[in-house]
Amino acid sequence: MENELLKVFDQQGNCIGIATRSEVHKAGHWHETFHCWFTERIDNEEFLFFQVRSSVKKDYPNLLDITAAGHLLADERPVDGLREVEEELGIDLALEDLHSLGMIKDSLNSPEFIDNELCHVFLYEQHQPFDNYWLQLEEVSGIMMASMTAFEKLWFGKVQEIKVEGFLSNGDNEKKPHSMLVSKNDFVPHEDTYIESVLKAIKNL
Questions:
Q1: What span, in angstroms and rounded, lies between the C-alpha atoms of 52 and 44?
Q2: What pLDDT, in 10s, does the model give residues 182-197?
Q3: What is the pLDDT of residues 155-173, one digit of tens each?
Q4: What is the dihedral of CA 189, 54, 82, 47, to 10 degrees?
Q5: Where are the domains of the chain?
Q6: Which CATH architecture has domain 5-204?
């Protein structure tokens, strides 16, 4: 995986070359990713769906994150990122099922790597019963949902905890209902500007 080839971009989004994934993260090069947020309107309220990252993940294990996401390889287009939804969640979607929210920048910096992403962000807003999910357990261990209003209040410091609920999967992909109280520290630390842009785009739709 670390030897996968990715396109490298400047701050303005111009392609300036190709590098391996490990080189990209070591140097902090801008590169393309695919993000797909699942949402659903329930009782006149919008809910967001988050994946629970597997405990064996090298980066951000056990934290809540975008429903499905991944890097785009050098020879891929944004639509090719749909493979991430099928691989991680076991749900086969077509481009026509999604709304494009455009390209949104996001930077995730940790002591181990610098992840500067040009994110091609999409929204999927149709109902998917939990029975339809078949998780790639080395990547994803569960799916949780939260009110978008509650999540926004949590992210921007108006409340300290919110309730999320959904399911966790065991080694046999058996789904067990689960709910818990979470703080902002239980989520992958995306930039505030990224989250703000995503929520604004969802509201505009």
A1: 25
A2: 999 999 999 999 999 9
A3: 999 999 999 999 999 878 7
A4: -60
A5: 5-204
A6: Alpha-Beta Complex (3.90)
